[in-house]
Amino acid sequence: MRRNAILCFATLLIMLGCQSAKEKFPSETRNVFGIPVTVTFFLPDAKPEDVKSGYDAVFMVLAQYEGSVFRPGANNQLEKIAGGAGRESIPVDTNVYNLIMRGLQLNDMTGQAFDLRYGPLLDAYVKAGNGAPSQAEIDTALSLIKTGGMFVAGKSILLSKPNMRFDARGLAEAWAIDRAVEALNAKGFTAFEIRTPYAARVVGMPVNQQSREFKLANPQTADSAWAKVNMPQGGLAYLPAKGVGGRLVIDPRSGKMAQGAAVAMAKDCVTAFGLAYGICVDGDASKLSDKGRAELLGHIRISGSSPSYQIAADGGLKDRIKTLN
């Protein structure tokens, strides 16, 4: 009987060891868009040479968009468009043109809650620091958004008024992740994830897993992990009203800063980003267009303040969020 007890105890130790040992996947993290970006391949037995081309492909794509639409500099095509605002049409490459067009579609899907032309409004908030811009400053920025149009001829873009400006931070990150997924698929990779603190794209799954854990930073301070979401395949975006690197969620219709945070799940990261932005601004998904609601696979709305946040989850993300400590 004692021998049986020892065997049972040994078996239990083995089982606990198997459950607690996490499978190690090859992973690499680099800083792009001012935040850490991690690429993980669900290949536990992979050698470094098996995945090196994958890492190189992802970070090359991300670097291209960081230079062309995110980081200030001579190669930033959104800055070139702003420089020609009110004067001349500026040609852009196909990739940047497609990003802008998707941004316009997301604006329609969110009831005009996400507008790439909100650059002047964002500038006013960044200039104000921890405070808020004056109403006069907000009204000036809103006049450029509400009455300033854009004209497209081929792949050339004219913003109609001086001082108009596109801003794609956040959207550029999500868009670039989706383009990096295409690059990995072209190389034959079929099971991997690309994630930042604000977005994740999961393609395929590790064997015997149905979801991946995504941690959310504190919605107000972003200084610590606050909750976790178990996400299935697809794209996920997390938008606290205030994120690092000037990532602010501002209603381009009223000029007001959003409150709380939102998580959205969609087929890809860029769609999830746009829908999460609209939900964060409006407080729920009711103002999304029919197409927006059709592409929204699940969402979480976070309101209130620390430590008493209120959480409302729906769709494919219902019951998938858990607060930590």
SSE topology:
Layout: H1 2-20, E1 27-32, E2 35-41, H2 48-70, H3 77-83, E3 90-91, H4 94-109, H5 119-128, H6 135-147, E4 150-153, E5 156-159, H7 171-186, E6 192-195, E7 199-203, E8 212-217, E9 225-231, E10 234-240, E11 261-266, H8 269-282, H9 290-295, E12 298-305, E13 308-315, E14 321-323
Antiparallel strand pairs: 1-2, 2-6, 3-5, 4-5, 6-7, 7-10, 8-9, 9-14, 10-11, 11-12, 12-13
Helix pairs in contact: 2-7, 4-8, 5-6, 7-8
Summarize the structure.
It is built from nine helices and 14 strands. With 325 residues, the protein is an alpha+beta fold. Helix 2 packs antiparallel against helix 7 and helix 4 packs parallel to helix 8.
What does this structure look like?
- The protein has 325 residues and is α+β, with helices and mostly antiparallel strands.
- 38% of the residues lie in helices and 24% in strands.
- The protein is built from nine helices and 14 strands.
- The strands form three sheets. It has an eight-stranded antiparallel sheet with strand order 1-2-6-7-10-11-12-13.
- Strand 8 and strand 9 form a beta hairpin.
Keywords:
single chain, 325 residues, eight-stranded antiparallel beta sheet, three-stranded antiparallel beta sheet, disordered N terminus
Mean pLDDT: 90
Q: How would you classify the helix and strand content by structural class?
A: alpha+beta
Low-confidence stretches: 1-21
- N-to-C order of helices and strands: HEEHHEHHHEEHEEEEEEHHEEE
Oligomer designation: single chain
* Morphology call: globular
> First CA to last CA: what distance?
42 Å
Supply Rg.
Answer: 22 Å
Classify the beta-strand content into a percent band: 15-25%
Question: Total number of helical segments?
Answer: 9
Largest sheet, order of strands side by side?
Answer: 1-2-6-7-10-11-12-13
Number of strands: 14
Q: Sheet bearing the most strands, described?
A: 8 strands, antiparallel
Helix proportion range:
25-40%
